[in-house]
Amino acid sequence: MTLHENEIPVDETLVRSLLKAQRPEWAGLPLSPAGAGTDNTMYRLGDDLLVRLPRTADTGQSVRKEQKWLPRLAPLLSCPIPEPVHAGTPTDAFPLVWSVHRWIDGVEAGPDTVRDWTAFGADLAAVVRELHEIDLMGATRADDLSWYRGGGLEPCDQWISRCLDDCRTTVAPELDVDALEQLWRAALALPEPSGTHVWLHGDLKPTNLLVRKGKLHAVIDFGGLSVGFPDAEHSTLWDLPPQARQAYWDALNLDDVTWTRARAWAIAVGVSGISYYWETFPAFVAECRARLQAILADAAAR
Fold it and tell me: Matching Pfam families, A to Z (predicted)?
């Protein structure tokens, strides 16, 4: 499935060729698809490894970032995160960096896997608190650690306004796009954030939260790792049931201004996802649509 114009095709033959050239001791292990997101394609390698290949040169930078920072962050977090065990180098066949990580057992968070959503929300809040309290270790909001979700909303307004217009021609019959825009503009009217920069995962949606025995076990996919303001970190709460959202909010004792900005970021990610992936990634569009529906339902209930 090709999602981007500049995407580099990947298949099992390519992955095996990379392994034969760079890690021949792994080249004969069983290899099977293990999912594909908007930025990376994954293959399970044997029982204990995961091959992670970026789709484009832009996401190749995220792979380098994971290789550099995940080993430094992992000892400071109480839940497992990906462990890079090989930093793949570019080849003629695949001209980007790539990674092999340790495999982490678990299933994505969902109604069939999470036992207690209130406990899940509180556990996720604990992970976020730990991450945000880690020393920056000299990192600053620059270069590959300067993702848009860690900044202010205003620089995104022109882009998100176009995406809202796109949504009016695609999902407007089933989503109140005007109401979403009102919520977006309410957040824009607030003062820009001015607090301390922290480490941000950037994309704590259910597909990046692994569950074991009904509880949160691990956090994966740090391609959006950045340094910045924490408001956007909370935007994926609308992907979770209300009881998880409330437990998370209570555990972190977040205020109404943060809630409003986080909701605006959730709208931004939702409408931009629908706009960009409308014709190429129906499953992701459905995910974005569900997020926006949850936002509207939550706003109506308040």
Answer: APH (PF01636)
